[in-house]
Amino acid sequence: MEPIKLNVNSENKSFSTDPSEPLLYILREEFGINSTKFGCGLQQCGACMVLLDGEAEPSCLLSCQSAQSKSIVTLEGLEKDGKLHPIQEAFIEAQAAQCGYCINGMIISAVALLRKKSQSI
Fold it and tell me: Distance between CA 52 and CA 70 in Å, rounded?
């Protein structure tokens, strides 16, 4: 089995696993990332959302092999120099966390949308 190489939150990692292993499980088990969560397992709820080359993508059914050579950013990776992303700050300020389970998908999707819209303006 050839090693899988991923770039997650600007950190390169190499490990051996079944290439069809879902990215979600690798993020949680190999990287210790807790923001991505298993929700529906059908790519519909957003709990497992990540930025994949800047696009919001669910990670529960995405194979880790297909994520190689792409930039993967999780909720933890939005922080820069100890400062939360403005979207994260806005969710805190508005007390929009609810139970917190699906907030990952909301924030990741909002960041991707704003980045896309700011490029098209």
Answer: 6
**Coil, strand, or helix at residue 6?**
strand
Rounded distance between C-alpha atoms, residue 9 and residue 64, angstroms: 15
pLDDT confidence bin for 120, thresholds 50/70/90? low
Give the predicted TM-score (pTM) of the model. 0.92
Measured CA to CA in angstroms, residue 51 lies from 16, 25, 76 at distances of 23, 16, 11
CB 35 within 8 A of CB 79: no
Torsion, Cα of 107, 112, 118, 121 (10° steps) = -130
Q: 86-93 vs 103-120: helix axis angle to the nearest 10?
A: 130
Phi, psi of 52 (to 5 degrees): -115, 105
pLDDT in tens, 57-106: 999 999 999 999 999 999 999 999 999 999 999 999 999 877 778 899 99
